[in-house]
Write a structure and sequence with these properties.
The complex is a heterodimer of chains A (394) and B (289). Chain A is of the alpha/beta class and 394 residues long. Chain A contains 13 helices and 14 strands. Helix content of chain B is 73%, strand content 2%. Classes of the chains: A alpha/beta (394), B mainly alpha (289).
Chain lengths: 394, 289
């Protein structure tokens, strides 16, 4: 082997590298843009992951049918199951970023999982889009720059809506809180306490339960004895159902207003005959008069998923609707950024001017100070009728 | 509040006691326990759900079928995870039973799914209300079944020829063998009976809770604590310890709040064992010097 390069070789190598790079770029331009989802795809909250998947899929189908993003690249969804476990969520997020090359991650129902992923995303400088988990500190996390965005409820705002609904629908003056014993419950304890203060009412008390608790009657009895005239429930489907079963066992016919965690699983089946008593919050209902976007999304859902035969079969609607709008906003941000680079994509989100979405018409959905696209004006109250989620009227 | 705590505590305590009875049976006869006892709880509930809800069997057929399967599972545990290790004189059965339980949990997870399911019962739908206290008929049935089975175990051990053979095997295994008592089969039978008791516990608790592949873990751990607390070899002691454990748990939640429940309950277990190292109702071990 020659020890020194000839002049011709010295010129040929950089030229070859440049050509290879160009060829690589050409191939890269045809590659799909991968978007990741880390959510509960199995376990008690599996329905939430399925709902989010469906919302993302319908939006991706629409975007790809119109030519994709960034001048012709197709969007591709890659999913990982976090099993509602923060450690597994972190591992899944790293895998989607490092192995799959996802340009953005979407999150699932569990606030503790999203809270665990947030620092990782801010360090990696890749945007994260929350589409369900509502803990206030997911988006308001103190990072600068902040790569976390959300098209979903925010606990601090939901809590105001829950207190308001308890007061207006049930004339509540001393609501009692029954909260899951984790970071999400803590987030809502602060939010509900503040919301009650602002509304000028006193809380009867706050009780906690663990996900695997069998009998919550002692906690409910404490609230009953403290004079609770309404219960405000924060928990996911299975433990939420245990609260309602315990309530039924106690024969305490107190109104229940709930955060939306109960809609992420088989709540009506698990809670039994009292499931329909619970009023809970959502961001969208496929019932009633629909906008053009609503009609289009519902038609696409019915065409793609045989189990959806009408608006009541879109369960949980919050997961589908939030994910649909979040994906459409992401496509706008990608086109605004012009590249898939995380920093540019973040700027792309901040640069979106307007979007006629499913949940609402968005105007400047994200700013430097506000990374939450939805607010308290975007919430609706619903209840179960059998397995279907229907808006509360009157 | 006292009435609510009593109802809640006695109901759950009976389940803990029922499952813990299984630990007592196998330990008394063989000096080993099935750490997959929680998985047997789950197996009973899952099979009952699969047959009654999934295959629309009448409950009167689904329950016995599920319990027979639990007993067979107990035989399998003894044959695979206990007997070979005891024969070699090691304590590896301890880990082997844990591992077999994990295998069963995961097989059920694949076949049954990860989502919890409901097992509705007319006994857990319409509560009886006395004053401010409501109670499902099933919550009354559970302690009755628990105490009834403890009585059956007691009678079985003291009033039947099988019980006589079991006690003979406990007292002196070699002498029992010389008297043509098939100790190996007796041990297998106790494992089947232990799994059966756990299965009954699973089927009884399912309508009040839900049915899931991982539902047995917590019950198994609490039942083992109860078995140790009760004295491990004393069936009545174990049942009473189960009721006491359930009551302490419910009272702690009622008066101190849910964040104190586990702290108070397990501190009470440690304190009780510090005072009575062989359990509250366990006989003291005589040491000859």
């Amino acid at each position: 082997m020659p020890k020194h390069l000839t002049r011709r070789q010295a010129l040929a190598i950089p030229a070859g590298l440049a050509l290879a790079n160009l060829a690589g770029r050409t191939a890269f331009a045809a590659d799909p843009v991968k978007v990741g989802l880390v959510a509960a795809l199995s376990g008690p909250s599996a329905k939430s992951g399925e709902g989010i998947t469906r919302g993302l899929t319908i939006a991706i189908d629409e975007i790809n049918a119109k030519g994709g993003v960034l001048g012709g690249r197709m969007l591709e969804l890659v999913r990982r199951d976090d099993e509602s476990n923060p450690a597994k969520g972190q591992t899944a997020a790293r895998e989607l970023l490092d192995k799959e090359g996802a340009v953005i991650l979407f999150g699932g129902i569990d606030s503790p999982v999203s809270q665990a992923i947030v620092p990782l995303m801010n360090t990696a400088k890749v945007p994260f889009m929350g589409v369900w988990a509502a803990a206030t500190n997911i988006t308001r996390n103190g990072a600068n720059p902040n790569y976390i965005f959300r098209v979903s409820a925010v606990d601090v705002l939901v809590d105001r809506a829950l207190i308001k609904h308890a007061m207006t629908s049930f004339s509540s003056k001393t609501p009692g809180l029954i909260l899951v014993n984790n970071g999400w419950g803590e987030s809502n304890l602060g939010g509900l306490t503040a919301a009650a203060q602002v509304a000028g009412i006193k809380l009867a008390g706050a009780e906690k339960f663990d996900d695997k608790d069998v009998d919550m009657t002692p906690q409910l009895q404490r609230l009953r004895d403290a004079g609770a005239d309404t219960l405000i429930l924060v928990g996911n489907a299975a433990p939420g159902a245990q609260v309602i079963k315990s309530l039924q066992r106690s024969a305490w016919t107190v109104p229940v207003v709930s955060h939306w965690g109960i809609s992420g699983g088989r709540f009506p089946e698990l809670a039994g005959s009292w499931a329909g008593k619970v009023h809970f919050v959502q961001t969208y209902s496929f019932f009633g008069n629909q906008s053009d976007v609503g009609k289009r999304v519902l038609a696409a859902l019915m065409a793609k998923y045989p189990d959806i035969k009408g608006p009541g079969d879109v369960t949980p609607p919050v997961g589908v609707a939030n994910a649909y709008d979040a994906m459409q906003l992401t496509a706008l941000a990608l086109n605004k950024a012009g590249v898939t680079d995380g920093e540019k994509l973040r700027e792309g989100f901040l640069g979106i001017d307007s979007y006629q979405g499913l949940i609402k018409s968005y105007t400047k959905p994200f700013t430097d100070d506000n990374h939450d696209a939805l607010n308290e004006n975007d919430y609706i109250m619903v209840r179960y009728n059998g397995d279907q989620i229907e808006p509360i009227t009157g | 509040m006292l009435a609510t705590a009593l109802v809640s505590g006695l109901g759950l305590g009976s389940i803990y006691g029922l499952i813990a009875l299984g630990f007592t049976l196998t330990f008394a006869v063989s000096g080993t326990v099935n750490f997959a006892q929680g998985s047997s709880v789950m197996l009973g509930a899952v099979l009952c759900h699969a047959l009654a809800i999934g295959m629309h069997w009448p409950m009167l057929a689904a329950v016995p079928a599920a319990l027979i399967a639990c007993a067979l599972w107990g035989l399998i545990v003894e044959r695979i995870a206990v007997r070979p290790f005891v024969a070699r004189g090691t304590n590896s059965w301890l880990m082997a039973t844990v591992a077999l339980g994990i295998v069963l949990d995961n097989v059920v997870m694949v076949l049954f799914g990860k989502e919890p399911r409901a097992l509705p019962s007319p006994l857990a739908d319409d509560p009886w209300v006395i004053g401010k206290v409501g109670i499902f008929p099933l919550q009354i049935l559970i302690p009755i079944v628990g105490l009834g089975l403890a009585a059956l175990v007691h009678l079985g051990l003291h009033r039947t020829s099988l019980g006589l053979k079991l006690r003979a095997a406990v007292d002196n295994r070699d002498a029992a063998c010389l008297m043509s008592i098939d100790v190996t089969t007796l041990i297998a039978v106790t494992y089947a009976a232990a799994a059966l008791l756990a299965g009954i516990g699973g089927i009884l608790i399912a309508p009040l809770y839900n049915v899931a592949y991982d539902m047995g873990t917590l019950f198994g751990i609490k039942a083992f604590a109860v078995a140790i607390l009760g004295g491990l070899t004393n069936p009545w002691g174990v049942v009473i310890a189960g009721l006491a454990y359930g009551l302490v748990e419910a009272c702690a939640t009622t008066w101190l709040g849910s964040s104190s429940t586990q702290i108070v309950t397990f501190t009470a277990v440690i304190a009780a064992l510090a005072l009575a190292p062989s359990g509250l109702f366990g006989g003291r071990t005589k040491v000859r010097v």
